[in-house]
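ESCALATION

Customer reports they have been waiting on this structure for their group meeting. Please prioritize. Original submission:
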Amino acid sequence: MRPRHAMTRLAVLATALLLIPSARGQSPPKPADPHRTSDADAAPAVSHHEISVGGKTLKYTATAGLTPIKNEKGEVEARIFSIAYTLDDQGDKSKRPLMFSFNGGPGSSSVWLHMGALGPKRVEMPDDAEFAKPPFKLVDNEATWLDRTDLVFIDPVGTGYSRAAKPELNAKFHGLRGDIDSVGEFIRLYLSREDRWISPLYLVGESYGTTRAAGLSDSLVEKGIALNGIVLVSSVLNFQTLQFATGNDLPYVLFLPTYAATAWYHKKLPDDLQKDLKATLADATRWAAGDYALALEKGDRLTTEERREIIAKLSRYTGLDASYIDSANLRVDIQHFCKQLLRKEKMTVGRLDSRFKGVDASNVSDTPENDPSMSAIRPPYTATFNAYVRSDLAYRTDVPYHILGEGVGRWDFGVAGRGGFADTSSSLRDAMSKNPSMKVFVGSGYYDLATPFFATEYTLAHMNLDEKQRSNVRLEYYEAGHMMYLHGPSLKKLKADVAGFLGDAVSK
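Update from on-call: job pushed to the front of the queue and completed.
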C-alpha cells in the first residue's frame, strides 16, 4: 500500500478472528471438505447468493479458489488465491464487463477494496472516524459495483492464501517486475478458462495496487489484452513523490496541502482558513507549488527575512508552531507531523486517514507509536473476512490469511544500486499510447497522508500526455482518507463516480 517507514511498517502482528452469521438470501454453497488445510489443488468453492441493489435483486455466483502459476517447464511455482463474483442469467457473458481488483502494500491482500467498497458484502464501519466495537458486523453492500461489472479479487503471491510453491521462490514474486508478471499471468489464465477474452476489461488498484495496475496496463497490452479502463484509488505511481530523503525535497511540497486538510479537520488553522475546505486547499496548493517549492530549492541561500516569511506561512497552513518548523529546517515529514499536530492535546493523527486520533504512551516521543487509522480497520476486516470466506463461501483452510504484510518481507522495487525511485507512470503513459481508447479514473482522499492528492496530481501532470490522452483521465476527490470508502458519503460518491466512468469507458 505504501512505502515503509519505521513508524508505519505494515507487518502488524495483531489480528482478530470472530465469527459472524451467514448472509441472508443465499442458496447453500457447494460442499467443501471441512478437514482441508493446505490441499493446494482442491476444487474451488462455488456458492450462489443474492443481494438487493437500488431496489433490484441481483443473483450471483461466488467462486473462491487457487490458481497454479507455472513456469515455462510446466512446473508450479506459486498458487494465487482469488474470489470471483459473476452475475447470473446474463446471456452472452462476453458482453458483460469484467474487473480485476487488488490492493497494495506491497504485501496487502485484496480484502480492503473487496469488503470495503466493491464486493456484495462490506464491513460495517462508523462514518465519523471512530473505532468499531467488536463483535464486528458484515452487511449487504448496496454500493457494490457488481451491478455494473463482474468482479475478481486477486491476492498476489505472499498475500491472502496465495503462496510460492517453495520458500526460495518468494524472491521471484516479491518485486515490482515479478509481481506484475504473476498477476498478469493470473489474468490471462482467468480470461482463457472463463471465456472472457472479449469482455470489456478493467483493473482497479488501491495504493501500491495502483503501481501494479499502471505496470499491468502496459504489460497486458503487449500480450494482446487491451483494457477499457483503469481505476486508481489512492494512487502512487512515482515513489519520488512520497519518499522523504536527503536531497529529495519534492514530498515536502506535495504533502503540504494534505497537512492543511488535516489541520482544517482538527480545527488548527486560522479562522479565515477554517471557512471552506476546498478554498483553503486551493490556496495551500498554490503556495506549496510556488513560494514554498522555491524556498526549499534555495536551501541555505534563503535570506533571514525570506526564511521568516516561509516559516510563518508554513505555520499558517499546517497548524504547527513556528518554532517547531524552524527547528525542522522548514521540512516536516509524515511521522513528525502526525505526532506534532495534536501534541498539546496528547493525541496523534492517522497516516492512512488523518481524521483518526490516537494516544501514545509517551507524549515526548518524536513520532507516533502506531497509526490509529490502521488500528481502527485491521481487526474488523480480519475478523469478518475470516468468518465470511469460511461460512458464506465455504472455503475452509487452516492456512492463515495474510491480510497485510505477514507474508512479504523484502521487496525489490527494481532500483537497487541506481539510487532512483520506483515509477510506473511511464508504463501507464505507454499503455495509453498503445491503447488510445483506454480511460483512467483517479480517486483521492483529502485526508490521505499515505498517498496525498497533490502528489497524484503532480505525477499525472508529468506524464507527457497530449491533450486527447489527458481528456481520458478523470480525477475525483473525497472527504476521507486513504480508504475513502470507510466514510459513508464517500462510499456512495465513489460508486456513483465509477458507475459513470464505466459507462464512458465502453461508449463509442
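Sent to customer with the following note: The longest helix spans residues 277-298.
Escalation resolved.
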